Amino acid sequence: MGVSDVETLDGIETIPETFREDAETHKGFMEKALEMAEEALSIGETPVGCVVVANGAIIASGMNDTNRSLNGTRHAELVAISEALKLHPASVFASADLYVTVEPCIMCASILRQYHIKNVFYGCGNERFGGNGSVLSIHSDFGIDPPYASHGGLYRKEAVMLLRRFYIQHNEKAPNPRPKKGRELNTSFEPT
Ligand SMILES: [Zn+2]
Fold it and tell me: Distance between the two ends of the chain, CA-based, in angstroms?
């Protein structure tokens, strides 16, 4: 499934009413993040993509780059933060929103908070490493830096499908691939 197949505003009901008024805007930004994730998938990176939006425009984008760079800190969010800082002062984040296909991990959640990001919108939760509520709540726990608002579930299915496609590809390349059953693309979803 490509981003072009995304026609409905999947997951918009998961974000607060006040943000839903700008549904088309959210859709456009998350679709861009999904495109970045798709590109990451095409070059063998874990498919996570994001965009940073300030004053209604994308000022930076990022995708996972840990395999190519052999640098485990090159997560999509940190790549995008670095890109934004090339052209903007750090204060830009205080009025910026991040759209990312997967819930930020604990490392990224912490750095986003230190940069005073305003809002984070994400697709699917990150059950193993999530720092916006799934494992720890770095975005809202007591801390020195101001907390940020986090809204999950926007285009969740599309984000999950990208990850599933990645793990299937990965398994096919493994020296001892799992039986075919484990390589079939699971397209079912639990109700949220
Ligand atoms: Zn991360």
Answer: 21
- In this structure, what CATH number is given to the domain that contains residue 81? 3.40.140.10
- How do 96-102 and 49-54 pair as beta strands? antiparallel
Cross-strand pairs, 150: 120
Distance of CA 181 to the CA centre of its chain: 28
pLDDT (tens digit per residue) in 113-142: 999 999 999 999 999 999 999 999 999 999
What is the domain range of residue 51? 22-167
Residues flanking ion ligand 1, Cβ below 5 Å: 75, 105, 108
129 Cα: distance to centroid of ligand 1 (angstroms):
8
Looking at residue 5, what is its pLDDT? 42
d(CA 181, ligand 1 centre) in Å: 30
User: Is 116 within a domain?
Assistant: yes
The residues carrying an active-site annotation are: 77
Pairing mode, if any, of strands 149-152 and 119-124?
parallel
Total of domains in the chain: 1
Residue 39, in any domain of the structure? yes
Residue 91, CA distances (Å) to 22, 26, 84, 147, 166 in order: 24, 23, 11, 15, 35
Q: Does the residue 62 lie in any domain?
A: yes
